[in-house]
Amino acid sequence: MNVHLPTDDRFVFSKRVQYMESFAEAVLDLPDEREDTISLAYGDADPDLFPVADLITSVSQMMQSRVDETLNYAPPDAALLTLIQQRMRNQNVDLPLSQYITVNGSSQVIGLLPHVLCDPGDAVIVEGPTFLGAVETFHNMGVRVEMVPVRDDGLDLDMLEARLQQLRNQGVPVKFIYTIPTFQNPTGTTMPLANRLRLLAIAARFGVLIVEDDAYGDLHFNNPTPPKLIALDTHESVLYVGTFSKILAPGVRMAWACGPKPLIQRLHKWKSEGSNGPFMTRLVAQISANGWLDQHIDRLNALYAAKCEVLLAGIRAHFPADIRYVVPQGGFFVYVHLPADLPVARLMPAALRRNVSFLPGTTCYAHGEGTHEMRLAYSYQSAERIAIGIRQLGDAMAAVRAGQP
Amino acid sequence: MSSGAGLSLDALFSTRAKSFREGPDWAPEPEGTISLSYGFADPAHFPVASIIDATSEVLAEDVNGALNYGPTYPGLVRLVVDRLQARGVAHAAPSNVMISYGSSQILALLPQIMVDPGDVVIVEGPCFMGAVRSFQEAGAKIETVPVRADGMDIDALASMLASLTAQGIRPKFIYTTPTYQNPTGTLMPLANRKRLVALAEQYGVLILEDDAYGDLRFEGEPLPKLIALDTKGWVLNCGTFSKILAPGVRMAWACGPEAIIKRLQKFKIEGSSGPFLTRMVERFSADGKLDAHIAELNENYRHKRDVMLDAIRREFPADVRYTVPEGGFFIYLYLPDDMPAATVLAKGRELGVTALSGVGCYANGQGAHEMRLAFSYQPEAKLVEGIRRLGAAMKAVRTQ
Fold first, then answer.
1. CA A86 → CA A105, A135, A157, A231, A238, distances in Å?
2. In chain B, which residue's Cα lies nearest the Cα of A238?
3. What gap in Å lies between CA A268 and CA A102, rounded to an integer?
């Protein structure tokens, strides 16, 4: 993932490019997988539930009317924005359409945030561990990334408060707190209601924006999730980011953000290509309409809950007793804390030799922490392959402990 | 939600995002008005059936590739490379081609990576102002070179470059649409293309070649793209599927110096342009299907150009000059002194027709007696009626 930019003295690039390139690029220590490796590393969606027939039907249907508005220069399909707004209203978030934006995947909003909010020297706070793509983006944009630990109930708020105070004392401007409060990536943890309220109060006191990445919020297996941060917010201090990647398909690249109007306006302005086109927005609206999306989410949750259980059963059967993990109530991941004699650096070669891989915790931190942590995704692989993979991984752990390859 | 003391966002915005003004809005047009204003594609020729077929094939063939996380489909990059090579761009390669969400994305990202406030960017007058606005957002100081009957005035460009150099100023890039220019429809001849590329090389200035209309050729032999004449890497070419497939799919490409492409890709923060969409566009285009569709479009647009030209000859006063484009979407008008475009357009709105004022096509306020007419969007009968109304507006302005 390390991109070496060519040096080319013919061109004079903007000061921003020069500033960004004065930092070393983030290097992600990703597993060296083969074609047939049972990869538990990545949070790809399960292809078995991709709604192929319904997508084809939707394209055919939408081509029978309003072709001009769908294929010509036109704004995003109004039906999609309305559908998103209604879904948010169902979760007690009532914002006008002017406070919504559709984007090409939530990574686009995450990437725009430093652009709109950060000058050189500004800091942002992220969870440690967190979504590797976000940290990489912030880092590569030249933003100072401060990590606050995640506990079994999500972001450690005592540590957050202390860090904010410390940064304030140092005169470092903190622009936003990037959090995944529900089924966090990578830990699978969920922040309880009391913590959510306290987080909002802390952010308000320090004058810091909260960015709530809710990629997994709809993927709950049993109990309903606590209210979204933006639903609890009384200070217009939350930017909410949601996505169709997990509930429809990542490949359609469709996500949205909602929040304070001045921020949404600037996201619109700095979204380089202009608004999302009418074709993809209408396709997503068309397939999701008339309750289809909710039914599909139910199907997804049944599947992901079952596969999560397969993975957990494998862990109980094959992993040593002195590992630690939180049983997720939703989302895509189980995060495992390993004992001192099982560093991921030693475990990975043994795992790859057994044709299985995982995401090393080190890729989920900004500064090399996570040497004894691993993320296991149950989202992509079939139940059968998850079972085999976990057994092999348990075998790899035993081998490392026995000093064998 | 109850209201509380709001967060002070003003204190949080970055310097570049502190000030904010709304972009220009497209004015709604009253019912019954015939719009000749915008370069929309002809909806009668959208390849609806082929889009449905391409979608089905892509999903049937590799559902995980199309719908999971993944890169821009390499097959689409390959297709663009092949098309560029077929047009004489020998150095086109997957490493120097990128796919973007519409060429507007390239036009907005290039100034971000090249322009600091006060840097000079050279544009044509008139030209596509959507591009100019994104250059201005980055703080560019815009210098305008006039467009003649054969495109950008290369003599004027040469003296501007000499004079800027004498002042110690090195412009960041030259924005040009050499082929069926927006708004004039003009075509830069080969000799001028060669001179333009030589000047870029001599002065060390990048050329941003907007090639949005390059495939929409109604007659005449194709001329080499600027990037095909460029052996030293001074041209960034951007092309789009908007005019040859559909604007609504938001799919375009850029080809040029790797140092530029790599940085554009880095600033394209969302990464790929979507596995599903890029596969669909590739499948729609593959195996000669895109060329067949382009041939159909050119037949249609040539006919509509002729319909508009015929109507112009019938309906407009004889001293209204107009361009006769060999391709593209637009005819450009030069009005006599007693017919300011604003007055004609005001009368035109009363009579139920709109067009784009020339003033909206210049960065320097020129164009008061100029006007752009799009023949691309309206059906034939409305083109004829629209020109009749516009001619009536001109005559009314003259007799007032």
1. 20, 31, 32, 14, 19
2. B7
3. 9
Q: Do B7 and A237 touch (CB under 8 A)?
A: yes
Rounded to whole angstroms, what are the CA distances from A380 to A82, A85, A332, A385?
Answer: 30, 29, 9, 10
Please tell me the distance in Å from B336's CA to the nearest CA on chain A. Answer: 33
Q: Each residue's pLDDT tens digit in chain B (400 positions)?
A: 334 456 888 889 998 888 877 766 666 778 899 999 999 999 999 999 999 999 999 999 999 999 999 999 999 999 999 999 999 999 999 999 999 999 999 999 999 999 999 999 999 999 999 999 999 999 999 999 999 999 999 999 999 999 999 999 999 999 999 999 999 999 999 999 999 999 999 999 999 999 999 999 999 999 999 999 999 999 999 999 999 999 999 999 999 999 999 999 999 999 999 999 999 999 999 999 999 999 999 999 999 999 999 999 999 999 999 999 999 999 999 999 999 999 999 999 999 999 999 999 999 999 999 999 999 999 999 999 999 999 999 999 999 8
User: What is the Cα–Cα distance from B112 to A157, expressed in whole angstroms?
Assistant: 37
CA distance B278 to B251: 8
Task: Report the distance separating Cα A73 and Cα B241, nearest Å.
Answer: 12
Our CA angle for A219, A220, A221, nearest 5°, is 120
Distances (CA, A) of B276 to A50, B54, B250: 12, 11, 13
Q: What is the ipTM of this complex?
A: 0.94
Compare CB distances from B113 to A7, A8, A17 and report the shortest one's residue: A17
Contact A352, A246 (CB under 8 A): no
Are the C-beta atoms of residues A261 and A224 closer than 8 Å to each other? no
Pair B17, B307: CB distance under 8 Å: no
Whether the CA torsion B213, B216, B217, B218 is positive or negative: it is negative
Contacts of B349 (CB under 8 A, 6+ apart): B30, B33
Which residue type does B15 have? T
Read off the tokens for B209. Answer: 């070649």
- Kindly report the nearest CA distance between residue A351 and chain B, in angstroms: 24
In whole angstroms, give the CA distance from residue A229 to residue A192. 11
Q: Write b or e for each residue in B12-50: b if 16 or more Cβ atoms lie within 10 A of its Cβ, otherwise e.
A: bbbebbeeeeeeeeeeeeeeebbbbbbbbbbbeebbbeb
Residue A256 sits at φ, ψ, to 5 deg, of -150, 160
Q: How far apart, in Å, are the Cα atoms of B130 and each of B24, B103, B142, B242, B355?
A: 10, 11, 13, 15, 16
Distance of CA A63 to the CA centre of its chain: 33
Cβ-Cβ contacts under 8 Å, B274 against chain A:
104-105, 251-253, 280
Nearest residue, CB atoms, B68 vs list A10, A44, A118: A44
Residue B232 contacts residue A11 (beta carbons within 8 Å): no
CA distances from B158 to A111, A284, B163, B178, B195 (A): 40, 50, 9, 16, 9
CA distance B311 to B318: 12
| Interatomic CA distance for residues B188 and A218, integer angstroms | 55
Tokens of B312: 């112009």
Nearest to B182 by CA among B303, B362, B382: B362
Put simply, the answer to whether B52 touches A260 (Cβ < 8 Å) is no
Partner-chain contact B262 A68, CB within 8 Å: no
pTM of the model: 0.95
Cβ–Cβ below 8 Å for A71 and B11: no
Describe chain A by its helix, strand, coil percentages, rounded to 5: 45, 15, 40
Closest CA–CA distance from residue A240 to any residue of chain B (Å): 14
For chain A, helix (H) and strand (E) counts, in that order, are 14, 14
Q: Is the torsion defined by CA of A111, A116, A122, A125 positive or negative? A: negative
- Answer yes or no: do B6 and A236 touch at CB < 8 A: yes
